[in-house]
């Protein structure tokens, strides 16, 4: 199913979303998922990224801002850091990422939002340390 | 608190988000909330809309697409229809709204997403009936 | 297990919480649960009410205000109306019940809280109609 | 992705789970999903049913009992009725379905479980009416 | 909005709830929130504490017991420890706090409740160590 | 309530489910729960295990596969590892446990399922280390 869709436009390879979002972590993330369960890794790659993300009227930045908000709704699991980085990799500014997290305050309440901002701080602090 | 922020830019009145999102339903929605609890209505107006929505680096369309996704995460309560309409009022195309709902599939699973698409269908059908 | 606890104070029968909370609806509610599943009905009566509610350092009013908040966290299922009535039956004022629902705003966000206030309004309106 | 897997055993067509679960409702359900969003319908058919359900070490009855429990965790959306029927179609007895719903009591609490048993009663009552 | 309310009764300053709940941790908590996001910190202080908590028919002890139960519903994030301490600071006994956590058993199931009691134990153990 | 039920069939002692699921960890787990709150420990033992688990038309393996899925729905708290082990102790193969976790993908989305598979990997790795 994904093949025919993805190959229609050769200038937009079917794995673009996945490559931009994961960035330099691409191979490490896929290996970790592969280590959890090969079928799970295949579903995440083939279905979530190369099908759902690719077949979308939304640009990747908006998709990733939505992904961040949805991960906050789930209690900010580790995937949130992958997608905070993904949103930034897709062109969102830090202030736009903060805007996505802040939308969680009226819809989900403060504790969920605070956990989201903590994940962001921990990502930004790690970036700072690397540069420093 | 909101006053100083909102008044800095006189070209952007503090209630812009609320007026665009609610559109022609503005007074009806506020009256309904007022009937539930006056303090609740005040918090939604003053804090959620005139503070959180206004003080954001995100444009209103992106905010509303995120709101739709977050409402799907809560099981698509009636507010979802308000914000599906809000996203369209803020300039999102139907395909972009579908894109926001589809992001819920990989993050929240199918049942939550199906309920979101049902709310969209019910909104679009009602629009069709009005026009027809 | 519940027997020894409940019988220690003969002035406080083991079914007090259940009788106060359900009030005039007591038999109707138990019959409805019995119709769903006899074992489920037994667990709700013997474990939830006659054990957990009875063995508590909290007074019944506080327990019911907490029950209302927890039911709002679950998306305000029909049980919420039973426990809004239960909180009032246990001596809470309408303003105190509103206080419990309002606590859901900072912790769970507005949509959950709005659904809670709608259940309260629907209960109060029904009371009004009966009296009227 | 699903093709190579599904075709390895020609005696087990790739749409078996879907046909058993949906039963006589098969075409009606797919049409309804198609009416919500064609891509959503395709994902549910190709990914959820013809891939995830088919590639499993679990028999269909166990899968459906798990599906019922997971749908109760989501607050018993309409899909629960489809999968209560699906569990029975796949060979579960009414008592086994009650067993799956009862497991939700210790893990999710009573309100979620009660909603699950209400969906079951409503399905069984409708069956009774048809027969009657 | 909060100003007029808070200033009506000069004997009850607008930051009373916040000062009692946070206690000796007041400045540390606000600084940590400030470090996450200044607007988030402002919303928690001005809206959650100095508005919602202050404008309530419930006494602070009851509010904090409800807050503890709601935080258990969210999976016992770190904020739970702040509000277990807050409930005790507001005059709840340890047995009353246990009563609030135990209410989560029938409404949310055992795993959520166990996580709540673990947060309480970890708070009480830390207190013991300090005294010791 | 549980006494009369459990003692009816002397060949099936009332604590069978609990002893199989907890296995060699039985006393350690009960002591830990006892240390959290004696009434909580009693409810888990008497109600959850010796009543709900025992009075079931489902075999223990199916009950534990359902328990694993429900714990994934709650965000994979530490209890998940107890019940992954419990499912294996009750006769499930590793592939059947993977099947139960994979059912969470279509119903709950990927992040919840990934956390479930991480708990499984961490359990299997610990087993490997012990043997090694």
From TrEMBL, chains A, B, C, D, E, F:
Residues 38-121 form the Carboxymuconolactone decarboxylase-like domain. It comes from the Bacteria. InterPro entries: 4CMD/NDH-1_regulator, AhpD-like, CMD-like. Pfam families: CMD. This is 4-carboxymuconolactone decarboxylase. It comes from Deinococcus aerolatus.
